[in-house]
Specification:
It is a single chain. By secondary structure, the chain is an alpha/beta fold. The chain has one domain: 3-Layer(aba) Sandwich (Rossmann fold), CATH 3.40.50. 47% of the residues lie in helices and 18% in strands. It has a 7-stranded mixed β-sheet with strand order 3-2-1-4-5-7-6, sandwiched between helices. The longest helix is centred in the last third of the chain and has 24 residues.
């Protein structure tokens, strides 16, 4: 399924005003299970590093920032934190820079660039990489750039599909549900090994999207996206669909982020330089 056209249609609706853009971010935070998992890791990082950083300049790199929802979420914690957000799409970078200027957050800067080539040596305390690695062939080049750009002791957080059906692929004959993916997902040991041989000294990897998450993903994302890809008329039906299904998805999301999974269709990695 082509995911980008649906994203562009949604963006056209929510980009009309800064208020609608903020509503869009809030909806993503509520609906996307990966946002729940990433926020959990970011809160943990903040407790360990951010809150004890008075008088210390915190610099964060949002690698493959997309719509900028994680840069927005992080910049709400502390206006003194500097956030550099990188994306390959010129129009998206320009749009995000305009939005963050309008809402008075000049500490967030978006740049056009390639995560497999961009480096800023020893500059960042944290690198956030959400739903990016599955889109790039040169994943080890990206990991080397992340480690080079981190300060000593800095941390990388990755969220990406696993090879246990993370792109909705369950057999060799199936293709990825999201056609823009260049790989169907990561094996935990493979991702850990790639991090360790590309500049990281310690890596922790866990599964996300366990049994509750798989159901939630279908309710919150797969079925709505299939409907929207079929006809624009489903934009009208979508609010009523979520009114009916979201209470169940909320409970499932909470269960997924509160449980340790023996396996899952998502992977969350933390790696330290």
């Amino acid at each position: 399924m082509q995911y980008d056209p649906v994203k562009r249609q949604l963006g056209a609706v929510f980009n009309n005003t800064p208020f609608l853009r903020k509503v869009f971010y809030k909806l993503l935070d509520l609906l996307l299970l990966r946002a729940w998992h990433v926020h959990k890791e970011l809160r943990s990082w903040k407790r360990q590093a951010g809150e004890g950083a008075s008088g210390k300049s915190i610099h964060i790199y949002d690698a493959g920032a997309g719509y900028g929802q994680y840069s927005y979420w992080l910049s709400g914690f502390n206006r003194d934190w500097r956030i550099t957000a990188l994306d390959v799409k010129d129009e998206q970078v320009a749009d995000c820079n305009a939005f963050f200027q309008k809402i008075g957050r000049p500490n967030v800067k978006f740049e056009v660039g390639d995560v497999t080539k961009y480096t800023n040596p020893n500059a960042f305390d944290l690198v956030v990489c959400v739903d990016v690695m599955e889109h790039i062939l040169e994943d080890e080049s990206a990991l080397r750039c992340y480690s080079t750009s981190l300060k000593q002791g800095g941390m990388l957080i990755i969220s990406t599909p696993s090879d246990k059906g993370g792109s909705d692929v369950h057999g060799e004959e199936e293709g990825s549900f999201i056609e823009e993916h260049v790989r169907d997902g990561y094996n935990i040991e493979d991702l850990k090994a790639k991090c360790l041989r590309n500049g990281f000294s310690k890596v922790e990897v866990r599964y996300s999207y366990g049994s509750p998450g798989k159901i939630s993903w279908r309710l919150s994302m797969k079925w709505p996206l299939l409907m929207l890809n079929t006809s624009k008329l489903f934009f009208i039906i979508l609010p009523f669909y979520y009114l009916l299904t979201y209470p169940f998805a909320f409970i499932l999301n909470w269960l997924d982020t509160s449980t340790t999974h023996a396996t899952g269709t998502g992977v969350i990695a933390r790696a330290w330089k």
